[in-house]
Amino acid sequence: MVPPVLRRRWLMAVVVLPLSSALLSPQRSVPGMLFGSSSQKARAKIVEEKAYDYIIAGGGTAGCVLANRLTEDGTKSVLMLEAGEAQSDSVLVKIPVAVLKLFKSKKFDWNFATEPAPHLDERSIYLCRGKGLGGSSLVNVMLYTRGAADDFDKWADACDDPTWKGAHLVDYFKKAENYMNNGDEKKNWHGTDGPSAVSDVPYVNPLSTSFLEATEEAGYRSNDDFNDWSKPQDGFGRFQVSQKRGRRESAYSAYLSKEVRNRENLDVVQAASVAKINFNKAKAATGVDVLLTSRRNNNNGKDDSTKKATATLKEKGEVILTAGAIGSPQILQLSGVGDPEVLSKIGVDAVAERPGVGLNLQDHPACLVSHFSTDDAPKSHSTKLRIPGTTLTNPVALVKWLFAGRGPLTSPGCDHGGFLRSSSQSSLKEDPDVQMRFLATKSITPDGMSTIADEYLPTPNHPNGFTIQTICARPVSNRGKVVATSSDPLAKPKIETPFFSDTKDLEVMVDALKKARGIMRQPALRKYAGPEEFPGPHVTSDDQLRQYAKHTVHTANALVGTCKLGTHADDLAVVDNNLKVIGVNNLRVCDSSVMPVLPGGQTASSTLAVAEKAADILRLAF
């Protein structure tokens, strides 16, 4: 017999869940905006019925920014094409902690995987990429951490243009931002009039407070704003997040409001994969070929059909490539821009030889230390989320989120942490090379988000505990690559991970794991710490930690660099300082793939800044 308290909670769930769906308005088509549920014929008509000033190839984070900014004054016509068809304002997207349900979801995640890597003992790394309007801002953990000014000074050096320095780029960070925390003292480093909301998580687990106390006991300073460039980045505190009143703020919700979607000069089509960019004899982009996929699935789960269409530019119009660090280089290669050897293997004639297309892939490698907690420790975040003994969401937590925008559902789980220097850093002038994220949750497996969908979600009784994720914040490994293996635009490219391709990063990770253990031993956390499960008490030597890191390293979800920003003299550069693709005309790349060096922070904010700057560049050029 079900206990009365559980019967009451089940009743609340029956009432609240349908109510939540009603209160959170579903994504609906408006004139000129067609989703994957619209017929292929209707979508083809939008694509082909007129020529455009701009065709935006990719409706992810950068694409949403540009679709908004380039249609603001009403003088330019814009078509944005997005391959995914996810419902970008789904309740699963809006609830921050529900990100766990988006990983490896067929609707929301492209679910890429790298090739088995010899330097990782032939392991393949899972890579989450968002599949819908808003791109990876739909599926990231929402941390708003820009990095340091020096990160962007390296961009300026790469392209020999001082306007890419941090001192200039900060204005674009601020232009994008709607900083919602109180405190005038922070406004010098934050914007308050931008579209994209930034705030603190309106929930703190007591274990997170104990973690911050433990970092002070270990001798680290506190940092109340990691985005304040007037002070060093190192220290520990709360990470700001892309949220508005406890709900995820994606690029879709921030930049594609109903008012924007209703603009007569903006057309948006989903389930529309860019097959290739078309060029004339002068190597100027003239438009794109598109494959319109169908939502009707056959028994194998594959699309029954695709319909081809061609979108055309007006004279002097431009194609803007914003398909991300995996999609953008693949589209360039399919269009004849890239390494001639790669193009030859997929049967594509070369339009422009740019051997750097798809190279320079960078990402943040992550590992973790995880403990069980004692019986008298505060309850873990995961315990507060669920009805005991089930995998069902606790209706009390759901009500708090739905009606107050507060409670444990507002936390992505890793919103406390900080930055520090590994023992290999000899100068305090260097920006920290390690980031730590604290999770008030016991990890079920040692490889983080790689197996959350497989192991964490189906587990009904999570043991209480806590975890520190260790991240190489400024890795030197940049030998990853993205390579098209077929002329079929729906075929996934080959991806080679950069993780630990330079052994310096492996040594930084080993040191970071030891420092995380040191924080766990401080009194504020030690009093709640039960046995360590990962790496485990048997893993003590540096060599054992190296093997643990190789066997468990996972992505911190920050892919950049595959269409590198640089100068014409740089053979591996793909775009110049104005984001024009070198060797062709009327084509730019304006997303995370242009970042020549990975910032020491989460890359959603820097992608917004790149896109905001790109919009200004385009307006001045037209």
Main sheet characteristics:
8 strands, mixed
For the secondary structure, the number of strands is 25
How many individual helices?
19
**Broad structural category:** alpha/beta
Mean of pLDDT: 91
Q: What is the helical fraction, as a range of percent?
A: 25-40%
Strand content: 15-25%
The N- and C-terminal alpha carbons lie at a distance of 71 Å
Instruction: Please state the oligomeric state of the protein chains shown.
Output: single chain
Low-confidence stretches: 1-29, 296-303
Query: Any idea what the radius of gyration is?
Result: 24 Å
The outline comes out as globular
Task: Describe the protein.
The chain is α/β, with parallel strands linked by helices and 622 residues long. The chain has 19 helices and 25 strands. 29% of the residues lie in helices and 19% in strands. Helix 1 packs parallel to helix 14, helix 6 (149-159) packs across helix 7 (166-176) and helix 7 (166-176) packs across helix 19. A hairpin with a 5-residue loop joins strand 12 and strand 13. It starts with a helix and ends with a helix.
Compact overview of the structure:
The chain is 29% helix and 19% strand.
What does the secondary structure layout of this molecule look like, with pairings?
Blueprint: H1 4-23, E1 33-34, H2 40-48, E2 51-57, H3 61-69, E3 78-82, H4 91-94, H5 99-102, E4 112-113, E5 126-127, H6 149-159, H7 166-176, E6 177-179, E7 196-198, H8 206-217, E8 235-238, E9 243-244, E10 247-248, H9 251-255, H10 258-261, E11 266-270, E12 272-279, E13 285-293, E14 306-321, H11 324-334, E15 337-338, H12 340-345, E16 352-353, E17 365-373, H13 381-385, H14 395-404, E18 416-420, E19 434-439, H15 452-456, E20 465-472, E21 481-483, E22 494-496, H16 503-520, H17 523-526, E23 529-534, H18 542-552, E24 554-555, E25 587-589, H19 603-621
Parallel strand pairs: 1-11, 2-3, 2-14, 3-11, 6-7, 14-25, 15-16
Antiparallel strand pairs: 4-5, 8-18, 9-10, 12-13, 13-14, 17-20, 17-23, 17-24, 18-19, 19-20, 21-22
Helix pairs in contact: 1-14, 3-19, 6-7, 7-19, 16-18
